[in-house]
Write a sequence for this structure.
């Protein structure tokens, strides 16, 4: 889901998950689980998450391929491992936050991976957004070694990672959910149980594919209306009080000037990049192909975002699809 | 917008238009405008509207190609004309509610059309959903005869037509808006001024195109999630508290059983038919082509609904796209 | 069809129409029809066509909104009219070659249009590429005045217009076909009878929509293959000897360097412009919507070409979609 | 490429590959390679291929999960293995012809797979159509054991398999190509070298994606033309002599009655099934996503074929997309 770096006030809307479906809202300060937590992957999301774990009193061992990412955590009190295996050796619970399926396979099943040294009974929580089939593959390997692998991708973006208000969509054995929640509530606000391993990924992928479709649709409708002579704020207010409304039109409108404090009003800087959305749409496409599911609009949104990445929009917020549809300066 | 025949409780959500942008909420009983109102087109929408005009104390003359549609109104106190020209002869203000552009052209500019007999200064309000370019064409012809033509398509469906709570999106000369509103508030709750003639059509077309996109997208995401093993109610609740939410997922969910009282939970009966949505998407496509606007997802939604109309879904509610995507009984 | 200005050798492939289906190949020199021919619209296509009519010994009266276009023909021996009506006054047969539907409506049914002065029995041949419904509209108006209106759009481009080797796709009353052919064989090589009025436009629109689809498809397949490591010439030869082959892959390959003498090997200069293809796809879309025909790939090709026109490709040959799909310099 | 079971006369067109690009045409009778050949996967394609190897005098050991498939070959003189490992034990060269990537992984790298027992130096030729990334994965595993893995998917269908006239698109180390060719010319007519391992799959995937696009496009254009009133044979002849022509329109026209001896004229029986085309489009989609290639029409064709598989067309020839677009009996 959208990494709303500069849209703080909207974050609540993005991530509020009603407290049914076994979710859990944590509002009090936590004082350490007593457990030793390993954290692998200290990027924009993982770094703040590991810091929150430390700040909540946990004993944390970290690893990242970039040494500078580790030294920051070290300064804050974390121990350091030289590879995933070393982290696993010193931990009971391990959280991974990595860019893609390949990194996750390497971190767990690679030569110096977690599976080499983690103790039977270890809880392995992968918060990366990856292919659900890789989550299942890792879970099967973990099970052979008596470990528990859980997928728990997040929603809420960098701001929520820093604030410790992430939403986690959790897939794994239901009896392990309380243990996972006990740790994840140190870094998140809403922990939702989604079903067997891979279900967390599935839920995230479905939501983000729909987000992309709604956003492209909103951009098309707003662009069409403006070209037909409508004032964008007026059209936006009509849509938002009618059946065309969505999160994309109400909270994250792609037309510059319609809403303050959204990427569209800031030259599409910040927010959730087109390249990242393209990656998530690729995962949705893979899952749809594998499960024989027809996703005509999802596929086309995927292709449009892919075109945008090769036309200069890779690092712009994904709402820049509005700009992509418009007449450009160099057109004839 | 969706004709929510059996979704009464949701109608308010569909049609509430915040009272800025020169809209007007009528909450008190009205007692006749003193003006003579003509009403042409007494179908599922036009019939109840004409009845409301009568009940509010107006003098109403009606016409429809089906005599039985007229006799119902006659019993309720309406006068009858034998063609649009006869209606126009006896009226100061004329409202039309017709199926498509061709009917509107015929009713106004045809052999026995309104333009033949209407007095200079007459206010002609077309509430049909048609091509904005036809609205402009009619307005130009009206202007030559000293009449005022206004487009005012509606949102809210049959229930709102009966309840007199329709939303009108009005396009025409701004100085004529108060006059149009004075009549339309007898049949509607929210009257929104959108700009010059054709703007009402433009606003409606943009909203409905977006509605179609969001609905197909919701159907795809829900279908994908279910095939990946997620419970549809759980997935729906995750989407509705996250960035994928829209009117289509929250108020009109296309998956049977997720919401009560929606067409999806009633075998896709009632609601807003696939054939009508296809017609609106055709209007959006025409407007987009004429204005050189790219609408990739809108075009694809158009084509998918068109495919549905030839595969047996023409009369089903447009949320039946969920069923269209699923494995059917006769598939291999 | 493609205006292959610099692909002379391929022109034959593009326009050869086997001599059945009532087509007619003219190979001998013609010496005037004795009829007075009017020609309206002297652009890139119309200019050379009018010149050929003159050179074949006809008495020709011309009109164009640009005086300089007329003086060129005047120098070659043509008479000049100040508007379509003046041309019609002096002619028995009139040929129009105009940019779009609106121009055609104006030239025939406008204030100083052909219908004002043409004699009953006049043969009106429109070679513009326009909406078949406008052809039918003009034919109906002509019929009321006892004139015969025929649609006869062309294939072959500027080179064929100059060489007098155009293909004409003719729609109109079958008994009038010999008369139309007698004139058109002065400017074309293959004259194909397609059916009632509008059929010529229908045939052209269907072919060009398919051309666009095949071209975008070829560009996608070639681009995918190259990114997967295949040599483009090798892939091209495999496709061209297999089931993926088409005119677009064999004769007009969109990958620079695969074929000599095609726009792709000349920086996509010349050829058939993206803006013109977009116009034809708009006509196909209109006809499909009006006839309730599903054209999912045609619609998407339309939208992609529309996107290209706003991203700087309007004047490039339509095979530049290959470049549009590729990684651009300013992408990340 | 299309499995043209009942389209014998067209097979030549489908598979002729000009003899450059290191391809090789075998026209003389071959008398055994002296090598021991293993063959795994004896389905509609593999069965006849194995039989041809036997008939050309090779010593052949076979395996299939269905015993009856093996007994047929046993009767013809083949030895039998109880699993891939047993086949590999008795062979110098092994050919596999399996339904999908998973089967290939199992046959080579599974518990009783080829890699368990094949001798260093063995030539492993996989003729299945699978994901090129799996071909590369298998090649890497083979290399570790000193074996050579080559991908060589086929074109031409069941008829060509029986006739020994298949086309092979070969990917692997160039120096191994002569060895592969020496065996493959016993079962095929054209052996094309495409590049490093995976290149054969890439070429096949690109061609088949383009075939699907051209076919859907042809169906759309023909359907549109017919609905606009054109005779399908006439439209077909215009397209086939113009720029819209392709293998799909000329050799395999999807409209019933336009061509004899194609599936369209035989109730879409035989030919290349929609489910198989959907599988190949899924492979194209996976390769495109992995290589960041935009394939908008390819993706949409994929989704349309996927929709067809759930609407009753799974076993019909892929040209039945024409019927899918048309008005059906139960539509309103």
């Amino acid at each position: 889901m959208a990494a709303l770096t500069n849209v703080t006030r909207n974050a609540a809307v993005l991530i509020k998950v009603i407290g049914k479906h076994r979710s859990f809202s944590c509002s009090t300060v936590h004082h350490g689980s007593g457990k030793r937590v390993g954290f692998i992957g200290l990027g924009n999301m993982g770094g703040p998450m590991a810091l929150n774990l430390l700040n909540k009193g946990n004993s944390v061992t970290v690893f990242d391929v970039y040494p500078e990412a580790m030294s920051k955590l070290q300064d804050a009190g974390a121990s350091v491992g030289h590879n995933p295996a070393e982290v696993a050796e010193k931990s009971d619970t391990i959280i991974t936050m990595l860019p893609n399926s390949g990194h996750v396979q390497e971190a767990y099943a690679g030569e110096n991976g977690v599976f080499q040294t983690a103790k039977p009974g270890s809880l392995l929580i992968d918060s990366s957004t990856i292919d659900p089939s890789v989550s299942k593959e890792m879970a099967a390997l973990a099970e052979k070694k008596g470990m528990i692998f859980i997928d728990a991708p997040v929603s809420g973006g960098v701001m929520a990672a820093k604030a410790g208000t992430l939403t986690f969509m959790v897939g794994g054995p239901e009896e392990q959910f309380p243990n996972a929640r006990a740790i994840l509530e140190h870094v998140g606000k809403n922990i939702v149980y989604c079903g067997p391993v891979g279900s967390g990924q599935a839920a995230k992928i479905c939501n983000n594919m729909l987000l992309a479709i709604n956003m492209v649709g909103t951009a098309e409708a707003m662009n069409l209306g403006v070209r037909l002579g409508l004032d964008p704020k007026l059209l936006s207010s009509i849509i938002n009080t009618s059946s065309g409304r969505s999160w994309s039109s109400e909270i994250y409108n792609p037309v510059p000037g319609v809403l303050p404090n959204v990427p569209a009003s800031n030259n599409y800087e910040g927010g959730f990049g087109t390249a990242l959305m393209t990656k998530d749409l690729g995962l949705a496409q893979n899952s749809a192909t594998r499960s024989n599911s027809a996703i005509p609009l999802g596929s086309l949104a995927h292709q449009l975002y892919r075109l945008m990445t090769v036309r200069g929009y890779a690092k712009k917020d994904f709402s820049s699809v509005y700009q992509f549809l418009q007449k450009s300066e160099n057109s004839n």
About this structure: The two ends of chain B are 37 Å apart (CA to CA).
